[in-house]
Description:
The chain is an alpha/beta fold. It has one domain: TIM Barrel, CATH 3.20.20. Helix content is 40%, strand content 17%. It contains 12 helices and 12 strands. The strands form 3 sheets. An 8-stranded parallel β-barrel has the order 3-4-5-8-9-10-11-12, surrounded by 5 helices. A two-stranded antiparallel ribbon has the order 1-2. Helix 1 (33-45) packs parallel to helix 11. It is globular, with a radius of gyration of 19 Å. The mean pLDDT is 91.
Amino acid sequence: MRYKEFGSTGLELSEISVGTWALGGKDMGPVDEKDAIEAIHTMIDCGVNFIDTAPTYGRGASETIVGKALASGKRSQVTLLTKCGIRWEEGPKNFKKGAIRDSSHDSIIKQIDESLMRLQTDYIDIYLIHWPDVNTPLEETADTLKELKKAGKIRFSGISNFEDNDLEKLYDLGVLDVIQFPYSMVNRSQEQLLKKYHEKGVATMGYGSLGAGILTGSIRELPHFEPGDARLGFYDFFVEPKFSRVMDLLEVLDDIALKRQVPVAQVTINWTVQHNFINTSLTGVRNAREAVENTAAMAWQLTADEIHKIDQAVAQLDSLS
Length: 321
């Protein structure tokens, strides 16, 4: 496993981390709980020391699985991240209908206690505001995060999916330890923000590194997801013409993977983490086999020539954006 300093936090974390959105089992297809727990254990046993989750992943299901996986004595082996800022209305258990962005003081206090219970722990290492809440002043949210730090419930704080103006304010308010944005060959939309705050000493995380599976090579035909599948609304490459351009990119990845005798996913993972402005990249896993495959990517690195070839293909994809 390879490790990097995590911004200015003093932590040294694995270059890849466990992404658990899919483990919620409601947004991205079904998942077996036993397989999910084995996947987390395998990632840890292979040297990964960072797990990312959120209450919104399966409406608490992902946090519950992570809590069960860590209850066997592995909590001390990992840095644990979860998120806040979204609650649900009473009624239908449907994220898209019932989710409300709420980063107010009282809401976050309730949210963290619920997360701590599901995760079976008494503190969170890193606590991120998942999405902006335009109805709550940033100062109120920042004061709440500071209150949680003082109480020992969280160690570090930050955001996921914010605009730069809000990032500047939160940085000045002293609560921007970590930022998390999508970053992959198929989504470089926030690259400049990642670079900017990396230079300021803020820890950076990229999510969606495998493009919801499309950059593993496992999807070669335009998929037809079930209604409500989050991949349809969250990603723009499961429709034409971008899907065909991604298939062209995969041909380049296929060639490198064949010459190196490694799975395509390992090529993808290395391309992401070899950017110095990415401290860690989230990799989703559903079972132990995927965990072994992903962590094996850390045993080697792409050459400058290989990165150049990939970058040329990525540039063709970017021309559609």
